């Protein structure tokens, strides 16, 4: 009996040591291995903004009680946003995933022509705006910025008078009814489709189901004078696959005028290659509706000078590409939610930061 008791105590001690040593369960390792092996990065912080039904950034956030000020808190915990998912931290610069699909849309040529008309670079800047009604929105309207979107169907009431065009978004299953009621003839010129349907923490919609949503909500808008954009997938490599599957499921019934994409990483060359890859794959104008200098897999997030250099290089390049219609830096906000706060375009009072001034005036 004593011998058995000693064996039991020994086994218990080993178990305690193993537990305290921080050994990870097998599924945690498997969830992270691809990011480690490939070095691909991207947008996993969109758990950075992982939205619940009521607090998603796809809808305009309520203005602060005192609209003349903005909270300078950067903590994502303030909005109860989940931690980033390691499986979505990607940025695909591997051209092997390019698609041979070519748009059959009758409006593709017209959209490309429209893109060419704005090749001077002035006006390509876009605001991805989660701040709701704010008087300081006017500080962000310059010759470089001409478009605003809010991850939803509603627009700040002063946007039109300031000279912004608005692009409402069918974010996902959570705002379909509101989108259909709001986005009618004459409401706007553009409309955006799903937000990162290839990510479980975002709109998370199967490509085949998305094809049905497009035919119901988006394709009819073209007859009302809208230019409509594809779903904006994250830069996870499966985003390209999802988009290819979407067009296959559509059977020729989905005809976007432009392709929307997201990108997060720290390589200007990687960013440029990624944009080129999507344009080559689908032969449609590009809207980069989220991008920032952010490495979700590493510790080197860059200082302000590095971020400014990156912004300058990639925006100057996009200004020279006829097929890039708009680009929206992340972010025009203070709560950057797991993205390096040095990427913010705002000071604590809502006025443009030094990076904001660069984006608004020089790129």
UniProtKB/TrEMBL annotation:
This is Glycosyl hydrolase catalytic core-domain-containing protein. Residues 65-103 have a biased composition (Low complexity). Residues 1-28 form the signal peptide. The lineage of its organism: Eukaryota, Fungi, Dikarya, Basidiomycota, Agaricomycotina. GO terms for molecular function: hydrolase activity. Keywords: Hydrolase, Signal. Transmembrane segments: none annotated. It holds the Pfam family Glyco_hydro_cc.
